[in-house]
Structure formats: structure tokens, C-alpha cells
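Dissemination and training. As part of the outreach component of the grant, students in the summer workshop were shown how a complex can be specified as a set of sequence lines and then modelled as a single object. The example used during the hands-on session is reproduced here so that future cohorts can follow it. Participants entered these lines:
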Amino acid sequence: MDDLQLLREFRREAGTVSPAALAESREKLVRALGAQTATKVRWRTERNRTIRRRFLLGAVAAGVAVAGVVAVEAFRPAQLTASAEAAAVLNEAAASIGSSDPVLTPGQYLKIEQIDRSQMGLGNTPESQVLVPTMTTNTFYIPQNQDGIWTWERKGAGPTSFPSKEAKEAYDEAERRHPGSTTFNFVERAAGGKFFNGGGQTLINGIPLKDQASIPRDPKALLKLIEERTKGAGKSPDREALVTVVDTLRTGLVPADLRAALYRAVALIPGAEISDRQATLDGQTGVAIGVTLPDGIHRQDIIVDPSTGRMLGEREVLLKDYPEAPAGTVISSISLKTTIVDSAP
Amino acid sequence: MSTDSEIILRARDRPAAFAELYDRHAAVVHRYVARRAGQSAAEDVTSETFLVAFERLDSYDVRRPDARPWLLGIATNLLKKHHRAEAKILKAAARAAAPETVDDDADLVTARVDAFAATGKIARTLRGMASVDRDTLLLYAWADLSYEDIAQAMNVPIGTVRSRLNRARKILKNKLSLSTLEEETENDRGRFATAP
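and obtained this result:
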């Protein structure tokens, strides 16, 4: 054995960790994160907007950052609500929902499948930055009695393709250094959906699922609540409101009347407009309604099927050309599919 | 799957997203600290590392997809508060592996005995080492960071990492080869089998 091998053996047995210790410190952290005030987030956001924009994809030259600053004004929406076309689609979707919620019998599960595709940025310098498309599937099995055991399958399928030789090399290098960071298979189980000893599923940025009845169904009041709960956070209030709606709908656990109200609330978001009438996400086609970020570099879309009222998913689209990705590239997307099944893995 | 830097970007806007970084790396940080300063210190330092990291989200260079060097750098700094615990552990390891406790007719377990004897020397060497050298060496050997990662973790140029690591390994090698000499002396008296 050489010196390093001997050193690596020394106190190897001491390097253990109990799940209980990790869970306890996670809980502390989550409490601290929850306590972050809006003021602080706003301060953080303002101060770093330029820095973030510059490094958004790792390869944005200072000139583009300047262009971004100009774009802030150019993209400031003039209207006070969503565009009329977008509002029409959303109101149609809301009307299509009706009052039907999935009905489960004891022993059945609501299966919520989310396919998350994102462009993984690799490379240590802006010049060597490459994007590799990867896929992760999160599948939740929620029992009819929601206090029962929830199952969460997390499957990392790794890269779905390699756009170039450099991308393959960068990925292989990353994988060599940290094996299994994009290919994994975990199953988590937790009573009442309290995964990782967290507080369980929440709606609208932290309202516990069991308190959903207290959330207003009036679209104006609902949007006001969303804006209050996201005040100062995020890249723009409009985008933040849209993402909060998407996050809430993605749980798959929102009752019909609240789903309809959420769509009607999006119809009131200034700057929301139709970005694509034929948006396809994992084989499902719907209408994309998006909010362009003040930096003019990204657009956040929600994709709905107006004829059924289902949210098909969400995506973030790049609006400017970059060396590693042209305008129009979908930086990330999550598709959503909900079914009823008789068993959980 | 997002890279760490993507999670950090998200967390700057939405603090709750930061928990994902914890789920990814808390075990690595905890193990590293536990090995250096014990379980109790590991619990404190792991918690604090992520709280400090969250406070410093703005300073993270998002061109780096892997946040481990950053987190382990914070943990290494926080470990300074637990230097007494670390010293105590090393002292105990040195004492436990003192030469007189080594069984003298253990031919079959020579390798184990070697390692055991080495344990004491490693413990003594680590204790006597300059703390920056010890940090560098252990980030390399226990946390599996590369030179470049360590440079980022300790916020020093890569050349400094190289020279600190060379120095630390040289000291360690010297102590361990010194032990070989001692063992050979012992072996002359038929107490240890020699390795070729």
C-alpha cells in the first residue's frame, strides 16, 4: 500500500452518516429557507440580475448582457392582463374542466407521471460550454387515503442524445468524475407524502394541501394571493405568478374548481400571451401560453389542452441565439400525465 | 436532471429549491466531516455548511456545474471551530495504534498489522501537519476532489494546491517509510515479515 492508500483507509469506518441525522439537519435547513423574507429575495434578485444574465448559459458575452438591459424595457408588457387570445384559450380550458375530479376507490392510487427534460450545461469555461439533453422521470403514486404511504419513483435516464462529439466527451468526463449523477433509480416512500421528512405536498407556494379549501376561487383574489406569496421573488412577478400556477397544477392534486380558477388567474397575468398554438410535449399537443422574462432571453410557457382543460406541462424556451444553443431551444420541459392505477410499486 | 448550478440559479429566485442541493450532497459533506472530527461535529458542520451556502448563493460561480468543491470548502472552513475534536480523534488514533499494542507473532495478519501501525503514524503526521496542508490532503484523499476542485474549495491558485499536496504527501511518505525502517529493524529480530 502506498501512502495515499493507507491514508484512504484511515478512519474510513468513521465516515458514516445516519439517515436520521441527515433528515434532522434537512428539516432545519428547510425551515430556514421558508423563513427567507421577500425583501431579502428581492435584494438578492436585484443585485444579481446582471451577473446571472451574463452567466445564464455560461457563454454570454458582456455585449449581450448590455443588450439584455435594453430588452428589459422592450419586453415590459403594455397590457394589464393577458392578451385577449390567451385569455380566451385559458377561459375555454377552465370551462372544459367542469367539476370532475378523479374518483379513487380504496386501494387505488393516483399515478402522476412527470417527464422532466433539461439541457445539462457542461464545461468549465464559457468557451467550452456544451449542452447535453437529459431526461428524468418522477412518478408519484398517491393512495386514495392521502394519509397512507405515497411512493415516489425517481428515474434518471441520462442523456437522450449527444448533439456533438464535444458534448459526448464532456459528458463522459463528468460521468467519470461523478458516476451516476444523471442515471439513477430511487424509490422513496413516505406516509402522507412527507418525503425526506418534509412537510408534505403544498399548493401556491407553501399552503398545505389539506388547507386547499381556504384558497380563493375568485380569479382576481387568487392572483392577488399568488402575488402576495411570491412578492419580490423571481425574475419577474408575471413569470413568478405563472410558475406558481404551474407548480400547483403539477401536483396533480388540485380539485377541479381550483384548477379552473388557476387558469382564469393566468388569464389576468399581464404579459401572458399565446406563444405556440401547436405545442407538442411528449407526444401531447396543446396551446402554449407564455410570459417572456424581462431579460428577453427566456420565455416560460404553460401548455394546456383547451378542449379538456388538462395541463399538459410546462417549458422554458430560449429566445436568443447562443453559441451552444440557437433561439427556440427548449431549455427545460416537464410533461404531466395523470392516471388511476390499482397498485404502487 | 439539473446540474448543481442550475439548482443554485433556481434557488436564488426560489429558496425552497435549495433543498435539492442538500439532498444531493449532504451525505458527502457529513461523511467527510465525520471522518475528520466525529459524528457530533459532522451534524453541526453539515447543517451550518448548507445554511452558509444558502447565504452565499450569490457568490457561486454558476459556470461550475458541480457544487461539491464549494460545499466542501465551506465545510472545511467551519471545521476550524471543531479543531479540538479533530485533534482529540487523531491523538486517540495515535495512542490506540501505539507500537507496543501490536501483536508480535501475527504473520498471517501482517498486512493488517502494517496498516494498523501505519494508522498511528498517519494520525501523528496529520496532527503535526500545518492545517492548510492537512485540509488540502484530506480534501484530496477523503473527499476525492481534484486539484482544480481543491483550488476552488480553498480559493487558492491550482499551483498552491499542487505544492501543498506535494509537501503534505512528502511528510506522510517520510513518516511511513521511517516506519518501514523501524519495522525492518524489528524484522531483523524476527518480529515482522518483510514485504519484498
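The longest strand of chain A covers residues 109-122. Students were then asked to discuss how this feature might be tested experimentally.
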